[in-house]
Amino acid sequence: MRQVQVFKWEQQTIDGCRKSVKVPDGMAAFHQFGNQYEEFDNGAGNYTTAIIERADGSVQQVNADMVKFIDPPVLAGPAENIDLRDYFAAKAMQALIAKHGGHVDDHTAESAIPSFSEEAPNILEVVEYAYGAADAMLVERAK
Question: Is residue 140 classed as helix, strand or coil in its secondary structure?
Fold first, then answer.
């Protein structure tokens, strides 16, 4: 879960005028976005909310514009500590298996994906290629 800074509206007197000011209201763990609605005479109005968990374990739903993410998003994956190479390799392997079911044409360009045995697809070859593709992506990314 990502940490967020939560805000609230507070009435303050500034230059003799009462104004609503957005002020910090502590930290929380962000769970997900949600939605709420408010009924009006002419119908309902929908708005996006953030579902957060406070340090004391209480869960709140606050307007989405009242939270600020303070840490960068984590790459999608089963483990929060996968590195970029693992992420790229997983994506390459997903694409290979989805498109070819483990089989790849071997009569393409010299730098193309190696062919896998049609009789017995070798997942180790798929994994080896996926990490090779990930390494190539990292080299290209560094340029």
Answer: helix
Greater confidence (121 vs 124) lies with: 124
Give 108's contacts (C-beta < 8 A, 6+ positions apart).
none
43: left (phi over 0), alpha (psi -120 to 50) or beta: left
Residue in 128, 86, 139 with CA at minimum distance from that of residue 104 = 128
Of 78, 93, 99, 101, the closest CA to residue 132 belongs to 93
Does 114 have pLDDT greater than 60? no
3-state secondary structure of 73: coil
Query: CB–CB of 6/66 below 8 Å?
Result: yes
Compute the distance between CA of residue 99 and CA of residue 61 in angstroms, rounded to an integer.
41
Q: Does pLDDT of 27 surpass 60? A: yes
Place of tokens 């869960």: 59
